[in-house]
Design a protein that fits this description.
The complex is a heterodimer of chains A (668) and B (303). Chain A is 25% helix and 31% strand. Chain A contains 16 helices and 31 strands. In chain A, a hairpin with a 6-residue loop joins strand 24 and strand 25. The N and C termini of chain A lie far apart (77 Å). Chain B is of the alpha/beta class. Chain B is built from nine helices and ten strands. In chain B, strand 3, helix 3 and strand 4 form a beta-alpha-beta unit. The longest helix of chain B has 25 residues. The chains are: A alpha/beta (668), B alpha/beta (303). At the A-B interface, strand 2, helix 2 and helix 16 of A face helix 7, strand 8, strand 9, helix 8 and strand 10 of B.
């Protein structure tokens, strides 16, 4: 138990007052000469069990009453299972607030979301704690915001709900960095979260680093976890998996594919409301299991001359309102332009063919070949994929290449003949290696990236490639394919976007069978092209929180939550526009999977740290901290009543009858 | 009769004059040595017919009832009741506890007034009066005599009696039961702070000796109410250990013990046929004596 006025506890010794008064009273005795000692002796030797207990009870009740008063004016706090630091000793209190969509789920109390409950409970509780500094770190920006008092939690914009997933280790990292920079004395960190696995990333190695960092911090930090793991049942979520337009005989139509997930496998028909091009269409979706997919549902767009636009899918309200909407934007697919920069024509033809042959007839693909000198004057804006088979870009070309990289375009470097010490994105070229028999690719990443398996699950025939001449790739890299010599055939540079690749060989017969085999080269280039074209697409689906701030700073709202402020559009689901480009921001797909980190695992993450956890019910009447002085006053009152009841003189036997009436009886 | 000698503090002539109109009667037949107003167990020469008895040789022929002879042709002697005086033995408890009194008068002083008044009344009607002061022993004793000059000696002893020492009331009563000649009026003035069961044996002993026993049980109002406002240290007036107590705490148990004692005492006196009078020291002794004398006047006459 903690106290808001602990100094008043110094007054606790006055609970001995009744005892002192009792002792003083005992000293105030009078002496009398007494004749009827026989009754006095009988009275003192008579059974005194209750009388003695009664005296002790009266003394105890008086002591309790004073103790209750002292405790009441010390303003005690009921903190449940929280082990709070002594009031006044906390220098900085940091609140890590999970504002992810899953926190929008209603708790056991109808109408109150977990986030609202967390904010309310934090406000009610923290205002009772004295702290010199109040810091809030929201899960969207991971930025520490200093506030004057806990009451501001309700009005602070960063504490509002977002569509962005939380990154709890990232928030703790931000908290640690704040502590490292400001060096407060005693710190308490309050974490409010619903313990979703995607938010906590419990398997991440970051936790170990964080734990050790906090353990080695000069001042101890106390962690309080307010877990909102429970929630109302019966939640459904909707997600759009594809949206594209096509021309038909009857005009343009929109093809959408969607997935509806429900927590309980209920068989029903769910009316999905589709809002697109100013019209509203209701799509009845027959739900059968926990996951129902609707593929290529066609919506005619005959009345709309525009080939681009935005739309919104919506399902009826349920336990979580954050996953009932899904925004999408659509446009004509962007042209797939490939720029091939090569010192000479050797091996360029294969790359050009692989880039130009589109996977379907509707996709327009083009590839231009040029020398590095020509590249300086070329139009780089529409380049989705850059194939570079020359010396690494010099200072004149480097900014142009970097513009493609920064935009999200893909760049694949092939080894040049010459030697230079230059590097790009941390990677550079090493020595040439030759083997007439040919090197084999022993392993490659089949789960993702350029050499991933095809949709049917079959692997690309990377192992069938024969590499007779390759160049080592120097620098810190992520190997996507490794030769039996141990060197990398294809590597990805460690960049934020992971869109810079180095291929150790060329697509010529004297280097490898990349051209002759064809399939691997084609898949690799088409995939890179498709990914790069995404960066040029005029309509992009983005995950909330994964868009850079400078990229979204000029977004205009088309449709979104009205509460979203313009600087935080990238965290809120909605449709936005900037320079003829459309953006649809939605929650990540992980938010639709309600997987919780179990309590043992959570405790393990904070092993060795001062950590306690409170599983709070969602509801306003469950404050974490409460002032309970009224309870002590009530106890004092009870003690006084009990004391009064015990002190009531017992009814004495009527005084001895001195009339000798019974003498007559005797005489008779 | 005037009170001889100096003015006694425990005697009020006006009270005595008012009480003089009520005679002191015995409840039982007394054996006196002169004629008096009390019934005698023997046949005598009073005017009150008792019974006819067959003439036996040796009887005075003058006492033959010739009328009865005439009716029945048998010799009968006519017998009459005898009236005699009594021996009144006043027993005054002078133990230390008799010095207690919170109403302005100690128990001993109150006992003096009753004893002095009774002695005066008895002597005045021709009865013999004796006095015994007891504590743990027989302190003073003066045998019953009926002469008015004997009264002065009794008053002197009463006046000089002092409450001191332990109580051995039961033993002294047994002793007195044996030493006082049979059929006397024994008046005990005491606080009776002894075990009632032991007291009963003493009363039964007195009753066995055909004494008419009167007890004035003198109790102070404070002993009955036991009302105190603060912690008290009680010193035993008879030299026992002192007791420190919070009166409010033990008052109920005190009262319980007192009630039990009084109930037992009631049983004892009823069983022992003792003329028992419980007297509060704040009551008027004249009323007490009036009540006593009047009650006895109604119940006199047993032979």
């Amino acid at each position: 138990m903690s106290f808001l006025q602990p100094a008043m506890l110094w007054a606790l010794p006055i609970i001995a007052l009744p005892i002192v008064i009792h002792l003083i009273n005992q000293r105030r005795y009078r002496t009398i000469e007494w004749a009827a000692m026989t009754f006095l002796l009988a009275a003192t030797t008579m059974s005194r069990g209750y009388a003695r207990i009664r005296q002790w009870l009266i003394l105890a009740m008086r002591t309790l009453a004073i103790a209750g008063l002292v405790f009441a004016i010390s303003r005690p706090l009921a903190s449940g299972w929280l082990r709070l630091a002594a009031p006044g000793t906390v220098d900085t209190t940091i609140v890590l607030l999970d504002t992810s969509p899953s926190m929008q789920q209603q708790g056991n109390r109808a109408g109150v979301t977990k986030l609202d409950a967390a904010r309310t409970q934090l406000m009610q509780s923290l205002k009772l704690i004295h702290s010199n500094h109040w810091i809030v770190i929201d899960s969207a920006t991971l930025q520490p915001h200093e506030i004057e008092s806990p009451e501001m939690l309700d009005s602070l914009v960063p504490t509002k709900s977002t569509s962005a997933s939380a990154d709890i280790p990232g928030m703790l990292q931000a908290a640690y960095e704040y502590l490292r920079d400001n060096r407060p004395s005693q710190t308490e960190i309050w974490i409010c979260s619903d313990l979703r696995q995607n938010d906590w990333d419990a398997e991440s190695a970051r936790w170990k680093v964080l734990r050790e960092a906090f353990l080695e911090a000069p001042t101890p930090t106390r962690f309080h976890l307010l877990a909102y793991g429970d929630g109302a049942a019966g939640n459904r979520s909707i997600r759009l998996t594809a949206a594209e337009t096509r021309e038909t005989m009857s005009g343009r139509e929109l093809l959408i594919s969607l997935v509806v997930r429900q927590s309980e496998a209920e068989k029903t028909t769910l009316p999905v409301r589709l809002e697109v091009a100013g019209g509203i269409t209701e799509i009845p979706v027959e739900l059968t299991g926990t996951e129902t997919e609707l593929v290529n549902y066609a919506i005619p767009l005959a009345g709309d001359p525009q080939k681009r636009g935005w739309g919104r899918l919506k399902i009826p309200a349920d336990a979580n309102s954050a996953d009932n909407e899904f925004y999408f934007v659509f446009d004509e697919p962007p042209p797939r332009q490939t720029m091939i920069v090569a010192e000479n024509d050797k091996g360029v033809r294969s790359l050009q063919l692989a880039a130009e042959i589109a996977p379907d007839v509707e996709t327009v693909s083009a590839a231009r070949v040029m020398t590095p000198q020509q590249a300086q004057t070329a139009d780089w804006d529409q380049v989705a994929l850059l194939l570079w088979q020359a010396e690494l870009p010099d200072d004149s070309l480097r900014p142009l290449v970097e513009s493609v990289v920064d935009r999200g375009g893909r760049v694949i470097f092939f080894p040049p003949e010459g030697n230079s010490a230059d590097e790009f994105a941390g990677l550079g070229w090493g020595d040439w290696h030759e083997e007439p028999v040919g090197f084999q690719t022993v392993n490659w990443r089949q789960d993702q990236d350029l050499l991933a398996n095809v949709r049917s699950g079959e692997a690309l025939p990377v192992n069938e490639l024969s590499i007779t001449r390759y160049r080592t790739i120097e620098g810190e890299q992520s190997k996507l394919a490794t030769l039996d010599s141990g060197d990398a055939l294809l590597s990805c540079a460690i960049t934020p976007r992971r869109n810079v690749y180095f291929c150790g060989t060329r697509a010529t017969d004297d280097h490898s069978t990349l051209a002759r085999n064809g399939i691997v080269l084609y898949a690799m280039i088409q995939r890179a092209l498709a990914d790069g074209a995404e960066s040029l697409a005029a309509a992009r689906q983005v995950v909330a929180g994964e868009v850079d701030a400078d990229q979204s700073v000029h977004w205009q709202r088309l449709a979104s939550d009205d509460a979203a402020v313009s600087t935080r559009f990238r965290f809120h689901a909605g449709a936005y526009e900037q320079n003829e480009r459309l953006y649809a921001v939605n929650r990540s797909s992980d938010e639709d999977r309600p997987l919780i980190v179990d309590s043992e695992r959570t405790a393990g993450l904070f092993q060795g740290l001062q950590f306690d956890r409170v599983d709070e019910q969602t509801g306003e009447d469950n404050a974490l901290l409460r002032e309970i002085w009224a309870t002590f006053l009530f106890l004092m009152l009870l003690a006084l009543i009990a004391e009064a009841a015990l002190s009531i003189p017992r009814r004495r036997p009527s005084q001895a009858n001195v009339t000798p009436a019974f003498v007559k009886e005797a005489a008779a | 009769m005037s009170i001889s000698g100096p003015q006694r503090s425990f005697l009020d002539p006006q009270v005595l004059s008012r009480l003089s109109s009520i005679p002191l009667f015995s409840r039982r037949a007394m054996v006196g040595n002169v004629s008096g107003i009390h019934a005698s167990p023997h046949r005598g020469s009073s005017v009150e017919f008792a019974e006819y008895r067959k003439y036996v040789p040796g009887d005075d022929p003058r006492r033959l009832d010739w009328r009865a002879y005439g009716r029945s042709d048998r010799y009968y002697v006519k017998e009459f009741e005898a009236d005699t005086n009594l021996r009144c033995c006043l027993i005054l408890d002078t133990s230390g506890s008799m010095n207690f009194g919170t109403t302005g008068v100690t128990r001993l002083e109150y006992a003096r007034r009753i004893a002095g008044s009774l002695a005066h009344i008895a002597i005045r009607q021709g009865d013999a009066v004796g006095l015994t002061c007891i504590s743990d022993k027989l302190v003073r004793t003066i045998p019953p005599r009926r002469t008015p000059s004997h009264l002065r000696g009794i008053f002197d002893i009463l006046e000089h009696a002092e409450a001191a020492g332990d109580t051995r009331l039961v033993e002294r009563l047994h002793e007195l039961a044996e030493t006082i000649p049979q059929r006397a009026l024994v008046v005990l003035l005491s606080d009776l702070f002894v075990s009632p069961s032991e007291l009963r044996e003493a009363f039964d002993h007195l009753r066995f000796r055909k004494h008419d026993v009167v007890v004035f049980h003198l109790l102070d109002p404070l002993e009955l109410s036991f009302e105190f406002q603060r912690p008290m240290r009680f010193l035993d007036m008879e030299g026992g250990t002192s007791i420190f107590a919070e009166p409010n705490e033990i008052a109920d148990r005190y009262q319980k013990a007192l009630q039990a004692y009084l109930e037992e005492m009631k049983t004892v006196v009823l069983g022992s046929e003792v003329d028992y009078h419980r007297v509060r020291l704040d009551s008027d002794y004249e009323l007490v004596l009036q009540n006593f004398l009047a009650t006895r006047a109604r119940t006199k006459g047993a032979r």
